[in-house]
Design brief:
This protein is an alpha+beta fold and 487 residues long. The chain folds into 3 domains: 203 residues, Aminopeptidase (3-Layer(aba) Sandwich); 94 residues; 143 residues, 2-Layer Sandwich (Nucleotidyltransferase, domain 5). It contains 18 helices and 18 strands. It has a 7-stranded mixed beta sheet with strand order 1-2-3-4-5-9-6. The protein has a 7-stranded mixed beta sheet with strand order 12-11-10-13-14-17-18. The chain has a two-stranded antiparallel sheet with strand order 7-8. It is elongated and about 90 Å long.
Length: 487
């Protein structure tokens, strides 16, 4: 068969599981690095001719964790790299079998593999691959097959190789580093502040590493030592250690379920665990708390004491709550399984935390919200709640007891109140949309958005269509009880 016919008939497909032993045998026999022992995500490909005879093998696996040239080329931060590294794959093995190779076969095989790599990765692992990388030993090869496929050489490595999970050894054989985008604007996507929705699951699955120095970790533990120990006996993990660990997970933007916290803890270094106050085990190591440890912590910790500590830390880091911002109270229910809801008060848009309270399953948010009013300084502030709280007693409590103004949503299940509002407020002008309520027309005709994301009632002439918002503002000269001014 002539060379052109062989190139035209060459195909690349995924290796079947039953073919893996033969793949390993051929790599051990013909590849100078032998077989690979990848951990995590990987795909094996085989190049065949028209008779399904093997021509070559390719292995794509997890990328290197730290590559200064690659990271500079992509332009992402260290934290982005930790979360988005699964979107990069490493061509860790490429072998053309002897006696079957012809000129340009390597170029064609690599191109066929790259054409399907991202889709195959999506089918196997639920997300695509945006960038590929590989290393070429200059003492063995020139890398022509990569440059012919549009790969870009970034430089040479420092001659270190990964030996274990977090351990590297010096091998004094620097490699040439080649990279390539598999999709247009891949680097722009990887360095963006937020990933596209189709890629967001990658960050959700990954657990970031803690980048806080041990000195700061020790300082954070001092705050949580005010929270009392609820267990009769504490062996490895004091309460203040576990609470500091949870705060570290929040600062690193890590998921905060009990299982996620256990994963985050396992990625802490021994020095970080020691700084947290975790006690050494008989083998001399600082262990990582398990999922069950966090479950017991969240069930037994003193919520009131913890809330006070969190607010004290926030006060130290962020200062006083923004006085001009809207205060929003909103409840959240557990996503999976039974459990109490949590009603939280925050300032928007700064997300300054003001307090929270559990909503027992035997009650609802309405009485809990009124209790939470007393824990937050509402004097002279605007407070927003959803339609569940559009109650006379709630409005009266905000205005007369706490000196606040309120924004309450009125829906169709309160027809009398809607009729009263319609009688007192003019209907919104034609063409009015809720998106316009948050801004004013700028000098070039564009809508200037209110940074709070909420139409301030004293700045806007009308509430958003589809909602009726009763507004009440107490007279600052302290009117007699039961009397208010409607705005």
């Amino acid at each position: 068969m002539d060379e052109q016919a062989l190139l035209a008939q060459t195909r690349v497909r995924l290796l079947e599981p039953c073919e893996l032993p033969e793949c390993h045998r051929l790599l051990d026999k013909h590849h100078y690095l032998k077989r690979i022992h990848p951990v995590g995500q990987r795909l094996y490909y085989v190049a065949t001719d028209a008779q399904d005879q093997w021509l070559g093998l390719l292995v794509f696996s997890a990328p290197a964790k730290h590559l200064k040239h690659r990271d500079r080329w992509i332009g992402w931060s260290a934290r982005q790299r930790d979360r988005r590294l699964p979107l990069v794959a490493n061509n860790s093995r490429f072998l053309l079998l002897p006696k079957r190779t012809v000129p340009n076969l390597g170029t064609r095989v690599l191109r066929l593999a790259l054409d399907r790599l991202s889709a195959d990765w999506q089918a196997q692992y639920g997300h695509p691959v945006l960038v590929v990388e590989t290393f070429v030993d200059p003492q063995q090869f020139c890398g022509t097959v990569y440059t012919a496929n549009g790969w870009e050489e970034l430089g040479t490595t420092d001659g270190w190789g990964r030996h274990a999970r977090d351990y590297y050894v010096k091998h004094d054989r620097p490699k040439r580093l080649f990279v390539r985008e598999l999709v247009k604007n891949a680097r722009r996507s990887l360095q963006a502040q937020h990933l596209k929705p189709s890629l967001a699951m990658v960050e959700q699955r990954s657990v970031p590493r803690c980048d806080q120095p041990v000195t700061r970790i020790r300082a954070l533990t001092e705050h949580f030592k005010q929270v009392p120990e609820f267990r009769a006996r504490c062996e490895s993990y004091p309460v203040w250690s576990l609470l500091t660990l949870i705060l570290l997970a929040i600062l690193c933007d890590s998921p905060r379920g009990q299982k996620d916290l256990a994963k985050f803890a396992r990625r802490l270094t021994q020095a970080q665990r020691r700084a947290l106050g975790i006690r050494r085990n008989p083998k001399g190591f600082y262990p990582a708390p398990s999922q069950s440890t966090f479950c017991r912590l969240l069930q037994g910790v003193d919520g009131a004491k913890l809330n006070a500590v969190i607010q004290a830390i926030q006060q130290q880091l962020r200062g006083d709550p923004p006085a001009a911002e809207l205060i929003v109270l909103d409840g959240k229910e557990p996503k999976h399984g039974p459990g109490d809801s949590v009603l939280t008060a925050v300032c928007v848009p700064s997300q300054y935390y003001l307090g929270s309270a559990l909503v027992d399953q035997k009650t609802n948010e309405i009485p809990i919200a009124r209790e939470l009013f007393g824990q937050v300084d509402l004097q002279g502030r605007w407070v927003s709640l959803d339609a569940l709280h559009t109650q006379t007693e709630t409005a009266r409590s905000l205005v007369l007891d706490h000196g606040a103004d309120y924004l309450l949503t009125v829906k169709a299940n309160q027809p009398t109140l809607r009729q009263n509002i319609d009688a007192k407020l003019e209907p919104p002008p034609g063409g009015f949309s809720p998106s316009e309520a948050n801004g004013a027309v700028g000098p070039q005709g564009r809508v200037e958005q209110d940074p709070t994301g909420v139409a301030h009632p004293l700045q806007q002439g009308h509430p958003a269509r589809g909602h009726r918002v009763p507004l009440c503002r107490p007279d600052r000269s302290d009117p007699p009880p039961g009397q208010t001014q409607e705005q």
